[in-house]
Fold these 3 entries.
Entry 1:
Amino acid sequence: MPSPIEDYALIGDGHTAALVSRSGSVDWLCWPRFDSGACFAALLGNEDNGRWQIEPVSEQPPRITRRYRGETLILETDFETAEGAVTLIDFMPPGNGWSEMVRIVVGRRGTVNMRMALSLRFDYGFSIPWVSRLKHDSGIKAIAGPDTVVLRTPVDLRGENMHTVAEFTVSEGERVPFSLAYAASHLRVPPARDPHTALARTENHWLEWAARGTIEGRWAEPIRRSLITLRALAYEPTGGVVAAPTTSLPEQLGGSRNWDYRYCWLRDATITLLALMRGGYYDEARKWRGWLGRVMAGSPRQLQIMYGIAGERRLPESELSWLSGYEGAKPVRIGNNAVDQLQLDVYGEVMNALHLARVGGLQADDTAWAVQCEMLEHLETIWEDPDEGIWETRGGRQHFTFSKVMAWVAFDRAVRSAEKFQLKGPVDHWRELRDKIHADVCAKAWNPSLNAFTQVYGGDQLDAATLLIPLLGFLPPSDARVAGTLAAIEKYLLHDGFVLRYRTTEVDDGLPPGEGTFLACSFWYVDNLALQGRVDEAHAMFERLLGLANDVGLLAEEYDPTAKRLVGNFPQAFTHVALVHTGLNLIKHEQEMAQATGQPPHDGQESDEFLQDPT
């Protein structure tokens, strides 16, 4: 049975990523890319669907602690037994030319008996490979169809019931390495490399990257860890960032809201780009904007809400019947049919991101502006249409309030870009459209009985996405409608202090009701508290959200306050981006208050005003 979602840590190499449990089991790894078939799929089934376990053998369960080595993606797990102590070091070397996972067992005290169990199952736990000994190295080769994996280690290996196992001992000062490398089966196997050299190179890679960041002051540590996590979710060859490295981790334990997030959403693209810039990572922001520019190219009528990590358009959804699902949550899905949905908000997200990228100094070429103008021409013809909305509902199209707000954002940012950077366009016409959409939203989305903006035009249900209205500049924080919407959300959408996206028991979204509280929405709630002057409450809520992260600083998509468990795909880029933005917003707000009172900021940083929305 897989571990609790919060018991996993992430390692990666810029091409794919693995989840490692507290007990030393690698239960999820897709090779060679994030969206490839998994060779370890125990996360969504059991050990017969593929995993790689290294653990002590002792009568009593070991005491386990773990951490990342400084600001890196090198995981260190300490096991303490009555006989001694060892540290298991897990990492994936970047820039190898092939993808590889390295595990090194280091003796710290005494002598510890260890066991390794490797179960390779390609194609999401379906295909059992043919395993043979390496001719010139100590280790094995496993092959099935297009996939080959090579395990090298000085430890004696043996086959046991379709698994590869080994027993060994580690004494103080000893280091026992294991290296698992992937190659396409028609190519030569990757050459052997020294694991200890690979460890040093991997540590230098991450420390050099982290040193380029500019985050200082209060909450710097969780913000930096979130940025490292976002970097780990980026596909190095193209710059695309996956929403999560996993599929089908349920939004409700035992439920059916199970989706494949190993793709790139335009919405996530834009807020990730801004988070990277705010953190000082302009090279990554340029790569991400380059990915965005490539997928945007072509007819605006064919703009999709999401793409594959190289820009692929077709992501057909199917179900894997042989996997039992995480803790029985079925179906297990690969692919995502939401690719065909209309979500009007992505036009506003893209326009906002490209505007702020220009403000931040990432100048785009003339082609990018031409594509943006074409997008606006198309948006003008469809903004009054119903859509599926930001939450990708499957209950039919409606006039979602947030979608209309983001259509306003699209034309608003076009006006600002044209004015600030002397870009050519029908600016007066865009202003008229902007004002028309604004009036439309205020007239049709406001519910006087609730004293709030509702999820859809003329509706009576709330949506946490409306918390973004003041953050986007649609209305100022001082507007009574902003305060009213916040109060209504506090009354109807808070569950144990955390924010639901909407009430699935009251809204027909085409799916069975039930899900956790949505962590990104809870971070937006913190932003609104601060904007309303409730700063102490904002700080307390932010600290409470940070407390939901696991012991290595990772967060899932949602949190179940009843079970007190993280739920949904993990780790979730959308959540970590929201953490970055809210943390930096609080730091900036603290600076501004300190400047207003003439007091020095609390370990603050210089304000990145050019990255704030100029509303």
Note: The chain is about 30% helix and 20% strand.
Entry 2:
Amino acid sequence: MMINVKWVLHRLPHWEILLLLVFALLGSFEGVLNGFVLGRLPSLTQATTVQRYQYLGVALLAYAGTYTCLFVFQLLIQDALRRLNIALKETLLTVSFEMGEEPAAGLNRLTNDAAQIQGRYFEVILAILSAGFGAITAALFVLATNWVMGIISIAFSALTMVPMLFGQARLAALGERWSTASQATLAAGSDWLNGRGDLVQYQAAGSFFGRVKQRLAVSEKRLQQQTNGQLRVQYGNWMLTVLTLIGPLAIGFWLIHIGGFGVTISVLLTLLLSVDHVTMNIRMLIQYWSQLTGTRELRHLPQAPTPLAGQNAATHGKGQVDLQDLTIAYGERKILNGTDLTLAPGSKLLISGPSGAGKSSLLRVLGGWQQPSSGVVRLDGETPTPADATYINQTPWIFDGTVRENLTLGQSFPDGTLLAALDQVGLTTELGDNPLDRAIHPNQTSVSGGQMQRLVLARGLLRKRPVMLLDEITAGVDDQNAQRIRDLIYRLPNTVIEVAHHFDDAQLQANQVLHYELTPAHTLVFLG
């Protein structure tokens, strides 16, 4: 997916696009005001006092009207930028979410990439609109003043495009190199911050930071090279601008000398004051062009976002689980080898095994989060997707907000249904009066680890999915809370498949929980 002009036009209302065009056109007369007003001064030497004051009145209206239009145009630009930034950040976050990127990468898109696209693409496109109308208006005025000298002046102005024509490919390559280096710097910075514990205890902070400094230096060097490339193009434009000013004047003086084509000093003064805006706007267009070229890679997203799911869809099925010749492997490393297993609706199963045996990978396959290497997985006769089963891991995801917000996730549920889910996990009384409106701040220990885990469990129960997949959900709580949570889930009508290291055999037997072990031989062994 590419963030381009078509994308921009689809994110702005038609009325705003029309107003932007109208006021950009009206404001573009700023470039010819001096030529129109000051170029007439030599002709006022023989004018009357009334004519001179009429001249001042026209000049006042022209300047005031033009700058008012420019003011409105700037207001419209700010509103357009607001709309585009909202759409851009929604798109970047959605793409990052759908790709399953690490949070640091997604936040980099939201901050760094979004700021770069706004400053070097959205704002530049709108500036091109102003500069384009300015160049056209100034060029038409110049031609109307004296078509011969106008053509000569415009022809000289066109020379300023030459540096960009030769520098475009180089600028694009420099932009791509900077983008790659910037991503490497972000990755190194993330490693540095995430590894603080090990770096401190092994006293390796200084040596490891050298890696961060090296990538940071490369990133800044690439940015400097990109900026220097743009400056070189600008320098070429500046040198040619000198030629566009001196060349037409030299020709104009010669035409005055020979008396050709009605060229006068007044005409040359008008052209001198106006052609500069043709040159300036063309030069600005070239500069903007180079900036747009440098953002090409940044604006290329790995995929287009798809519409996000809305309200919670009804879940059908009873919870039948079937595995047929299921094999899970990562390259040469096998997790599970050719396994058959059938669980009737409402069954309870605990899977144990050594660390690294692949228990979590098995749960992810059962939940449709990853595909098996071979074989078949069926939930109620269908290939599972992440929306077909409730999957809960050992790290509860709770965010700053109310209990209601943490349960509903923005979806619509009656309060009675929410309270019933809280009651199922034993939180109705623990959270005090009016529990749905209680504020939760997970980083401030406003709720215990066991309460957070049960709150996440209530969130899953709300969706009424027939299969629950639980990955070490009692690992972070004490034995008393672990037993309480298991007593709860074993009473549920759902099919429950749990992965755990620590468990109570007596509790499993009392609740008729099936117990399988995932062995180093890549098989599921029935233990009871």
Note: DSSP finds 16 helices and eleven strands in the chain.
Entry 3:
Amino acid sequence: MRFVTDPATAIKIQKMQERVRWGSPEIQTRGIDQTRLILADEQNDVPEFSFLVIGDSGSGKHQGHNPQRRVAKQMLTQWDECRFILHTGDVIYLVGSSEFYPPNFIEPYREFLVGGEHYKRLSYEQMVFKLPFLPVPGNHDYYDLPVFLGAIAQLTYPLRRLLQSRLEFDLGWHGSGQGKAYTQAFIDPLWMVEMKGQLGQHLDRHYSAKTSTGRCLQYEPGHFTRVPNRYYSFCYGGVDFFALDSNTFNEPAPLPTDSAGDEYRQVLQARRRKVEAEMQALVTQIETLSPTQQEEADQIDDMRVKLQQLEEVQIDIDKQLTADQAIVVDTEQLNWLRDRLIDSWRNPEVRGRVLFFHHPPYVTEATKWQQAQTLAVRSRLRQVLDDVKAAVGDIANDQPIVNLVLNGHAHCFEYLRTVDTGAGDANVNWIVCGGSGYSLRRQRMEGPVLTERFRVFSNETTVAKSHLFVGREGQGSRKRRPYSFVRIDVQAGNPVKFVVRPFVSEWYRGEWSDRALTPFTI
């Protein structure tokens, strides 16, 4: 059983490049950098500022409650003091469908949108934000429906009734179109502008900002609020922010071709069969429950969470089983990050660096901490940071190569810090903000310390420690669901310091409560 399909990395890259007219003659002749934006904000050179972070939010209503809307309301108490919002991905569940932007994004975030008081009239393709909203794509923003499921959805209603009324999976009639809906909602869709014969005029109007790497997009809150690409950078208050698309460098490496590899392949295949059987059993069990009864509705919600966890395990196993020597890794993006980080370190006006992308390299959430995709992203990001460290070590001295990394994907709030391993990702602060609306997850049973074996016959070495974890807790009627977002206050000074202020909206025994957690400085 598969509810979703994940396009191949090469397809994701190709489709996104086509949509932004990547490197077209009109763009090249104007000297435009399609990976950079400038916020049209008179305060963008002020060294003290605040911003909000959310992630994994786009679920709409759960059984009897709407955590996404609750979190949005609490965000409104903070946004007047903040300069922008970062979203760490998975904007729309389950398959990034354009059908679910109205209920799962426009409606819950209506106060953040121009014309939001009439949110039912707004189109996801024409959203304009009052406060800069700067997202990166998550895996669900790329997902599509399997062919057989799409056909069933088109022709029959029983399965749709089960999926929507019982499982509350927002599948709709189609998927994301390989990320097309996300592009139409947030990225400047130059292919559509070109079809109207207005590309040159559009570029001259919206790509007028001047930077050291050429002209770039000017982001104008309240007027024009598009980002230029699936990955991009901007500078605010002397801090460089780098938005990445981790969906194109998360593919696991091929399995070994020796006997050990064959043995592990058999283990994965057996694990996949077990996961498939568990998923079938859950669907059968859910059919016996009534979503109109509160106790059974909570059981359905828990089973839906478990079903989604199992599917993520299934996808991760499939990625390992199908990986071959021709695996595609987005080296263009990774090389871009390496080069821009080196430039950032060589710019004396920059006092800090923040990365934000979907898949967390370090996390202790139970379903993500040892996934092959997690380890693949960790390895590839570490190599980039190793290269940067080698190039700017004399400038950086003992400072971390990046000050802060923000991720989603794991449905929790977590703060971790890597230890001094000597690698490029040592002594970095990592915040996972993936608990802003979708089903929450627990922390792993193994505890808060992450270890790694750097060589085949070496001992396990500590690489990171979790200092705060906010996720699902308790059992049965005492189960707590603390959804979250975070406000980050950037302080003056060099190197930069951050005050982290997590906020929680908790669903417990059929009631909501809001609270702010104790701030901490990193």
Note: DSSP finds 13 helices and 18 strands in the chain.
